Amino acid sequence: MTLPVSILSLATATAVHDLDQDTALTTVREVFAGSFRDFDRMSGVFANSGILHRQLAMPLDWYRQEHSFAERTDVYLKVALDLFVEAAEKALAEAGLAAEDVDTIVTVSSTGIATPSLEARAMARLGFRTDVIRVPVFGLGCAGGVSGLGLAAKLARIDPGSNVLFVTVELCSLAFRGDNVDKADIISTALFGDGAAACVIRVGDEGFVEICGSAEKTWNDTLDIMGWKIEPSGLGVVLNRAIPTFAKQNMLAAMEEMLGPQGIALGDIDRFVCHPGGAKVVDAIETALSLNQGSLDLEREVLRDHGNMSAPTALFVLDRLRRLEIPPLSVLTALGPGFTASTVTLRRAA
Question: Does this model's pTM top 0.85?
Answer without folding.
Answer: yes
